[in-house]
Amino acid sequence: MENTPEWRISDSPVPYPGALETMEDRVAAIREGAAGELIWLLEHPPLYTAGTSAKEADLLEPSRFPVYRAGRGGQYTYHGPGQRIVYTMLDLRERGPDVRCFVHNLEEWVIQALASFNVKGERREGRVGIWVDRGGGREDKIAAIGVRIRRWITFHGISINVEPDLSHFDGIVPCGIGETGLGVTSLVDLGLPVTMTDLDVALQESFEGVFGTPPVCSAPE
């Protein structure tokens, strides 16, 4: 497609209700042809979000941080400072109306961005998100994915752990992680002095190769 998305970076933490309102307005405008696509890079204050598959038992500390019903797919997720949130408002009417392909490409986008820092991010059958093999039977999640699609316009998106306080994940069972040997990590936890700006550059550089023209998808049938 000829048009490229607008990229917006918010320097200060964005309250979650305001972010939802902004996304709703932009999705409606894209659908009506009144605005172009948007990729919004931001951080949130500490909070938990509940996706459409969230189980109440997975909210271990309900009074620790505010909890919001997100409307996206997935379970409980933590958002907070040091975590890059990437909200993707893209028009699948132009990019290809294929939900499986879109989610696959979101995963590939994260994997390619992480590869810029020599981090091998991997998919895992039956587990949403991107994982890092820590050795010794341990695997840690470094990125979460949760999307919503309305009339083929996407919103919500991905979160990548740069340098969040990992103890904040203790208040939930994040995205269904409850098995022995599974945890959460970040780029800094892996020993990499990566900044938010570094990650933003990697995301921008790898976007076109994944979501370019024509739409490409190597997702399994």
Structural key phrases:
single chain; 221 residues; alpha/beta; eight-stranded mixed sheet; three-stranded mixed sheet; 4 helices; 11 strands; 24% helix; globular
- Report the β-strand fraction as a percent range: 25-35%
According to DSSP, the number of beta strands is: 11
CA-based shape: globular
User: Roughly how many Å apart are the termini?
Assistant: 24 Å
Number of helices, where a helix is a run of at least 4 consecutive DSSP H or I residues: 4
The sequence of SSEs as H and E is EHEEEEEHHEEEEEH
Give the C-alpha Rg.
Answer: 16 Å
- Given helix and strand content, the structural type is alpha/beta
Mean pLDDT score, rounded? 92
| Poorly predicted runs of 5 or more residues | none
Sketch the major β-sheet: 8 strands, mixed
Helicity range of the residues? 10-25%
Architecture overview:
The protein is of the alpha/beta class and 221 residues long. The protein contains four helices and eleven strands; from the N terminus they run E-H-E-E-E-E-E-H-H-E-E-E-E-E-H. The strands form two sheets. Strands 1, 2, 6, 7, 8, 9, 10 and 11 form an eight-stranded mixed beta sheet that branches. A three-stranded mixed beta sheet has the order 4-3-5, with no helix packed on it. Helix 3 packs across helix 4 (196-211). The model has no long low-confidence stretch (mean pLDDT 92).
